[in-house]
Design goal:
Blueprint (H helix, E strand, L loop, with lengths): L2 H32 L7 H31 L6 H12 L9 H12 L4 H20 L6 H4 L5 H23 L1 H27 L9 H16 L10 H9 L6 H39 L1
């Protein structure tokens, strides 16, 4: 590939990341209008900031999972490059279309000298892992939709199917593929935990034994948003699914407030992930130039 082509591919990837920043700013403005800040005290603000930081850190799991996929596909990349590429391209998921994050990652990867084949395959693998991984959380929501099922049945079934899936993955695909599956599952689980906290901040009071079900409901709602074409970051779809699944636990206003707070946390977390990676990269380059 010519140097000219590489420069333009880098610019395309950066442009898609910048477009994501613009749409994130628009989204944050909308969330600010939807939240009744008078109902939130200082503790709530601190909790939102802490949860956004936690979600931002959890994005590293996605970068690790993608790197493991690249290793499995015979295109090894460094941890730093994988996380940097993920941080730049990830914000493009907020652009309508819900696919530009993959286009941005493809452009950045090709500009770095990686073949189109492994990059495209990694996207297919990643989507497969996220869809299947999120579906594995389905047993957790059984106590919410089926009367008479004990709370423990959901999380025991979940732990069983996850263990079986990881065992099959390592047997069929090897260690790198199993590690990728583990990273993606860990990200989904951490997202569910963050939503439990957002639900509590919104005033949702549920039985502690139902917390796994609430986390599972969020992951299932996230999956519905992921597979819905044209919904930027699943906007609208997740809300509808969560209203359906959590209607037996709380009133609609509480659920919707939890959804909005959860959205605010995830968007802020994505921005923090992007910003921290940019700062780290600048410090890394500065240190190398001095050496």
């Amino acid at each position: 590939m010519s140097p000219y082509a590489k420069v333009w591919l880098h610019r395309i990837g950066a442009f898609l990341g910048l477009a994501g920043v613009v749409f994130v700013a628009i989204r944050l403005r909308g969330y600010a209008d939807e939240i009744d800040f008078h109902r939130m005290g200082t503790g709530s603000y601190i909790a939102v900031a802490a949860l956004a930081s936690l979600f931002g850190v959890s994005n590293v799991l996605l970068g690790f999972g993608w790197r493991s996929l690249m290793l499995h596909l015979g295109a090894p990349v460094s941890w730093h490059w994988a996380i940097r590429t993920y941080a730049i391209s990830q914000l493009a998921k907020y652009v309508p279309g819900n696919v530009l994050q993959f286009a941005g990652r493809q452009a950045i990867g090709v500009a770095a000298g990686i073949g189109n084949g492994p990059l495209a395959k990694s996207t297919v693998y990643e989507l497969g892992f996220l869809v299947v991984g999120a579906a594995l959380f389905s047993p957790l929501v059984l106590p919410l939709i089926a009367a008479g099922i004990p709370d423990w049945f959901g999380w025991v079934s979940f732990a069983s199917v996850v263990a079986i899936t990881l065992w099959l993955t390592v047997r069929v695909g090897g260690v790198d593929l199993c590690m990728a599956a583990g990273f993606y599952l860990s990200f989904l689980a951490s997202s569910g935990l963050v939503f439990i906290a957002a639900y509590s901040v919104a005033g949702g009071l549920g039985d502690f034994t139902l917390y796994p079900a609430i986390a599972g409901a969020y992951v299932i709602a996230w999956l519905a948003g992921l597979i819905t074409p044209g919904a930027p970051a699943g906007l609208g779809v997740r809300e509808a699914v969560l209203l359906f699944l959590l209607s037996s636990l709380s009133d609609a206003p509480v659920i919707l407030l939890a959804v909005v707070i959860g959205r605010l946390i995830t968007v802020l977390g994505d921005v923090l992930f992007f910003a921290c990676e940019q700062i780290f990269s600048w410090l890394y380059r500065t240190a190398n130039r001095r050496n």
